[in-house]
Structures are given as structure tokens and as C-alpha cells.
Amino acid sequence: MYTGLHPHEMKRSSNTERTLFEGITRIPESEAPNVRNGNLRAEIEAEAQGVNGVIFAMGGYAGGVSLYALDGGLYYEYSTLLLERDKIKVGTLPAGDVTIAFEMRTPLERAAPAELKFWINGSEAANGTVRRTIPAVFTASETFDVGIDTSSPVANDYFDRAPFEFEGTLKRLRFKNLPAGDPGFLPSLEDD
Fold first, then answer.
1. 10-residue block means of pLDDT along the chain (192 residues)?
2. Is residue 39 within 8 Å of residue 138, measured between CB atoms?
3. For the purposes of burial, counting CB atoms within 10 Å of the CB of 7, is it exposed (0-12), middle (13-18) or buried (19 or more)?
4. Cα 40–chain centre separation
5. 3-state class of 29 per DSSP?
6. Which residues does 26 contact at the CB level (< 8 Å), separation at least 6?
7. CATH code at position 153
8. Residue 113 domain-assigned?
9. Is the pTM above the cut of 0.85?
10. Centroid of chain to Cα 71
């Protein structure tokens, strides 16, 4: 219960960048990219063609986040401990090689809202807000998964189709923590 009241004291990995690949699953939240409430940029290289499936998921139905494809469309869903669900329709995934990028910006306050911005193949695709983020962890038993959503499914759209394995190819997922004071959205991780 202590870390719920003092999330800044929870043990976390000191890594500021992570590169993950298809098939990497069951990463504990403390070792995974902080897609829950941080300042983060992700770039995903994939091959898609009207695909379905989870690109990544962390947590589960009661509390979690998922980026997934459904009938060729790209969606992001965030479940705030069953109190709220925020779903963003990002756009249509073009056939063939595709790069998906997104940034999350979250103020340093408890249960803060997060602003998200998405790009598909370098073009701005969507903006959205998660009304309330989870400060510490989604669950003690769920994990971060690439290309599949193990255990409890995060999103309503694929609840009855779990684990909703990605039908295309995920080539690389790169996550980087961003400085809290950085006011703008970055053009690319490769520019660092």
C-alpha cells in the first residue's frame, strides 16, 4: 500500500530507452517502458495489410493500455482501474511497411491527464487525451506484451478475441523517456 501513496519510491528500471521485438512478452511493469503515465516517445516499425491484433499491451482490463489494429484501423485504449476508459481512433494503417509513432506527455501530479499525439508514416494522425492516468502500477499480475495481450485483455474491441495476436509483422518497437521540461513533440528518435 505504501507505493500506492508514494509512487515515486517504487523500484523501477533505470533504463531510459528500450528496443523490443515481436514475441517479447510478460515483461514486468517495473522493467517495461512507462506507457502508463510518463513523458515518452515510441516508434514502431511494422508490416501491415488490413491487419488485426495487438501491437503492445500493458496491464489488463481493469487497468491497462493497448495499441492495436482492428480491421485495418489503428486504436489506442487506456483503462483507468475501471473508472474511465479512453479510446482514440488513430487512423488507417496503410498496406505494407508502416511506421507508427506516438508521444505521451503527463504532468508531474497524481492521477494527471496525459496528452497524446500520433503519427503514421511521419504524418500527424491523431491527438487525444487520457483523462486520468494511474500513478504507480496497473496490476501486480499483468505484464507488458509485444504483439499479443496475454492474461486479461485491455480493450473492449478485442475482449472476446484475446489474446488477439498481431497478424502482420512487428519489426521493432523503440521507446524513449523524454525530459519532463521538454515542451514540444519531437520529430523522431533517430534525430537524437
1. 53 82 94 94 93 97 97 97 95 96 93 96 98 90 96 96 96 93 56 50
2. no
3. middle
4. 10
5. helix
6. 143, 144, 145, 150
7. 2.60.120.200
8. yes
9. yes
10. 19
